[in-house]
Amino acid sequence: MYVQFQKRKLEKVTFTSDIQSEMAQHGKELQEVIETQVVGDENDQSFLTKKEVEQLISVHFNRIEKGLGHLAESVEQQSKKRTFANYYDEMKNLLKKCRQHFKDSIVEKTVTSKQKLDDKVTGLRNDVRDNIVEVKDTAKSTVKQTILYMNERLKDFTNAIDQKLSEHEPVQLDRKQNKAMAAQAHER
């Protein structure tokens, strides 16, 4: 029984580390998406404003938080025994889906903004817009800050899984308690 406890504790530490590494990798991939998909015109003026990109990032991480919330609910309602590995796979799939959605959203928003600019008078092309470098830097900074926040949320999620898994383990009694229980059983 003690071995099961130690094994679960090791799995928890490994899971926490792996899921945080996965989140860090997710952040790097988002930054790559920002670097490649946030584009501008010949004057280095971004087709998307800082505010628009920050809003897309916010929506993206809200989706992840919502998914994490659903996973946390599934921990509470689980009837069959699941492992940290099961939750890791689900979280990894969630991040993959959200990353693709984020990329698609940026591409769609950029195309829409570019078309609006092309459809309007040329004078609008010189309208005040954000510099592309500023937009990318702001977006990358927002991603980094949000990844740190999400890592704290992931720790909470890990603790919830650990708590649920510990409910399925038999209680470990120390030697004195075992002797006392054996003596009581023998007296009966």
Give short descriptive properties of this protein.
single chain; 188 residues; mainly alpha; 6 helices; 0% strand
Mean pLDDT: 83
**What structural class results from the helix and strand content?**
mainly alpha
Number of strands: 0
| Biggest sheet descriptor | none
The portion of residues forming beta strands comes to under 5%
Which residue ranges are poorly predicted, with pLDDT under 50 across at least 5 consecutive positions?
Answer: 122-126
From the N-terminal CA to the C-terminal CA, the straight-line distance is: 26 Å
* Number of distinct helices: 6
Order of helices and strands: HHHHHH
Work out the helicity level.
over 70%
- Radius of gyration computed on alpha carbons: 25 Å
- Cα shape: elongated
What does it look like?
By secondary structure, this protein is mostly helical. Helix content is 81%, strand content 0%. Helix 2 (50-77) runs antiparallel to helix 3 (84-119). The chain is elongated and about 95 Å long. It starts with a helix and ends with a helix. The model is unreliable at 122-126 (pLDDT under 50).
Quick summary:
This protein has 188 residues and is mostly helical.
